[in-house]
Design goal:
GO terms for molecular function: L-allo-threonine aldolase activity. With 471 residues, the protein is α/β, with parallel strands linked by helices. It is built from 18 helices and twelve strands. The protein is globular, with a radius of gyration of 24 Å.
Length: 471
């Protein structure tokens, strides 16, 4: 490959900044990458910081490699809290993917894609894995593969992504009825919630239950593993399959690794935790583009026979990817280098929660990982007014209503500016005599609100109001 070819590529297609005339040779963390071409000059690419080192996400896209437009976008996304899907691929991540194999994955001839699938299958303790373009696809492929013949039904949490946010895919592709359940505890389903809703008999008026779908995390909340184990035992007792929408199971794994004093950079430690988390499930979908920051992709894991069947449906869904090596390599890179950063996103989310609580702002759901649901109406501020004020800062902060999502490219400065902005708005209300100070702090008020909630069995309408947010 000639240097002039690189010059033409950047000039013609990027058209930002001077042409690159030096070799780009990032350190490659996986064995399936092809050999490095030889040039006379070399340029050193700064590798990501390790877990023990602080990293600055704003340095990971440069004008020289990524173009000034992407540098500017990175600075914007470092203050954009709408979703963890908004992260930008880093220079090193994309350079790594350039060296990936370029075989046809529909013919199962791409080593990079096969290596990623084998890696995730091993990490999760499952027999096989299948790479696809999105979490919606891997969820729907799993459900379709589980669903053999109508009539059949699926049990989910009423907030579940597979039920609410996948364009009616369950009904469209699997011809299945979804039975949505409201958690009695307002946080997560329990075996006690699920068992009365199982359709096990021969009543021809009701579609029998064939699958239970759980989600972890949901609204950033970690589903207690002991309860998942109970639900797993319940499903096996009645010969019902159990599927996990684990779009953010990486966040759960990061939390467990930290609590167990394990090393997030150690593959064996990751495998230990992920295998335990997924053991109760027959199948699981793990998104690669959310917390991990891959540009595209999701993985479905399960028994080998199941995955082979899912590949038929993947083809029928139009999900076959020909030369998928580069996107698989980007995902592999993210798993290696971005996974260790998830614990920091949790720390920043808890810092934001603490700062907002101290101001008296309500918090709508427990902050277990990287999401904060804030309720400024507790101090007399509307969501719209806070959103507009944040967006009007000299360095704007963007939020999506009450949900705030901290991703690995959010900076500590953005968290501090968020809290400062809300404080300024509260101080303005107080100075205008529009705010009455409450002697009860945010955390104590939450406990009081919880104590005053109706106890015991309640109506679906009450449960809708009580249950923590779901996106």
């Amino acid at each position: 490959m000639k240097v002039t070819a690189i010059r033409l590529s950047f000039k013609n297609f990027v058209n930002i900044g001077p042409p690159i005339t030096r070799q780009i040779t990032p350190t490659l963390p996986r064995s399936f990458i092809t050999s490095t071409p030889k040039y006379s000059n070399k340029m050193t690419i700064q590798q990501p910081k390790t877990q023990s080192q602080k990293y600055n996400p704003l340095t990971e896209i440069t004008a020289e490699i990524g173009g000034q437009a992407n540098v500017d976008q990175l600075h914007k996304k470092s203050r954009d809290f709408r979703s963890d899907t908004l992260t930008l691929p880093t220079d090193a991540q994309l350079l790594y993917s350039l060296k990936a194999t370029r075989g046809d994955s529909v013919y199962e001839e791409d080593p990079a894609t096969i290596a990623l699938e084998e890696r995730v299958a091993k990490l999760t303790g499952k027999e096989a894995a299948m790479f696809a373009v999105s979490g919606t696809m891997t969820n729907q492929l799993a459900i379709r593969t589980h669903m053999k013949q109508p009539p059949h039904s699926i049990i989910t949490d009423y907030r579940a992504h597979v039920h609410k946010m996948e364009a009616g895919g369950i009904a469209m592709f699997s011809q299945a009825t979804t039975h949505q359940i409201f958690p009695e505890n307002g946080l997560h389903l329990t075996a006690q919630d699920i068992e009365p809703h199982l359709q096990l008999g021969t009543n021809i008026h009701i579609a029998p239950t064939k699958l239970i779908c759980l989600e972890n995390t949901l609204s950033g909340m970690i589903f207690p593993q002991d309860e998942i184990v109970k639900i797993g035992k319940l499903s096996k007792k009645h010969d019902i399959q159990l599927h996990l929408d684990g779009a953010r199971i990486w966040n759960v794994a990061a939390d467990q690794i930290e609590k167990q004093n394990l090393n997030p950079e150690n593959e064996d430690d990751r495998q230990t935790v992920l295998t335990e988390l997924l053991e109760p499930f027959d199948t699981a979908s793990l998104c690669l583009s959310k917390g991990l920051g891959a540009p595209i992709g999701s993985i479905l894991v399960g028994p080998k026979e199941f995955i082979e069947k899912a590949k038929w449906f993947k083809k029928a869904f139009g999900g076959g990817i020909r030369q998928s090596g580069n996107i698989a390599a980007s995902s592999d890179y993210a798993l290696t280098y971005h996974f260790p950063r998830l614990s920091q996103t949790h720390q920043l989310a808890k810092k934001l929660e603490k700062g907002l609580r101290e101001l008296g702002v309500g918090i709508g759901a427990p902050v277990d990982t990287n999401m904060v649901f804030f309720q400024p109406d507790k101090i007399g501020l509307s969501l719209d007014s806070v959103s507009e004020r944040l967006a009007s800062l000299p360095k704007p902060i963007i939020v999506g209503r009450e949900r705030v999502v901290v991703h690995h490219q959010i900076t500590p400065e953005a968290i501090e500016d968020f809290i400062k902005c809300v404080k300024e708005m509260k101080d303005e209300l107080k100075s205008n005599g529009q705010l009455e100070e409450n002697d009860i702090n945010g955390e104590a008020q939450d406990k009081l609100d919880d104590w005053n909630k109706p106890k015991g069995e309640t109506t679906d309408a009450v449960l809708r109001k009580q249950a923590a947010f779901g996106y």
